[in-house]
Design brief:
Elements lengths: L2 E2 L11 H4 L4 E5 L3 E3 L4 E10 L5 E2 L1 E4 L6 E11 L12 E11 L5 E11 L2 E13 L1
Parallel strand pairs: 1-4, 2-10, 3-10
Antiparallel strand pairs: 4-5, 4-8, 6-9, 7-8, 9-10
Length: 132
């Protein structure tokens, strides 16, 4: 089983007109320390519209050193902290997971981009992983 460090992308639910002033935003996440050959959950990515329906998201992740990034389709409950109206409703999205190569040690930087149709912005995520 992998460590679950997840963050919902509630930002993707904001009104596009409010977000239109900037074309992208970079978000740096805290470093994760892990063992070689293991998996680390990086983030849950999902979005919804004003009617609480799933909005598709696209994720692009270039291949990092020392491992691979995988996307797993999953269902998520909308958190009450992000939407009172949609709280508890299920939406579809992805779990972003990194799997470290076996017998490697060192640090690697994971970068990936997230886009959604309901926000006129690209989110760039960065996270360093220390592999022991």
């Amino acid at each position: 089983m992998f460590k679950r460090l997840t963050i919902a992308i509630g930002l993707l639910t904001l009104i596009p007109a409010v977000q239109a002033y900037a074309a992208s935003k970079t978000i740096n996440h805290p470093t994760i320390t892990m063992k070689a050959g293991n998996r680390a959950g990086l983030q849950n990515v999902f979005a919804w519209d004003a009617n609480c329906r799933t909005v598709s998201v696209s994720i692009k992740a270039p291949k990092p050193k020392f491992g691979n990034v995988y996307l797993y389709k999953s269902s998520f409950k909308v958190p009450a902290s992000q939407s009172r109206k949609c709280a508890g409703r299920s939406v579809r999205g992805y779990k972003v997971v990194f799997k470290a190569d076996k017998k490697v040690k060192g640090s690697t930087l994971i970068k990936y981009q997230v886009k959604s149709k309901n926000v006129d912005k690209t989110f760039h995520f960065r996270r360093t992983l220390k592999i022991k």
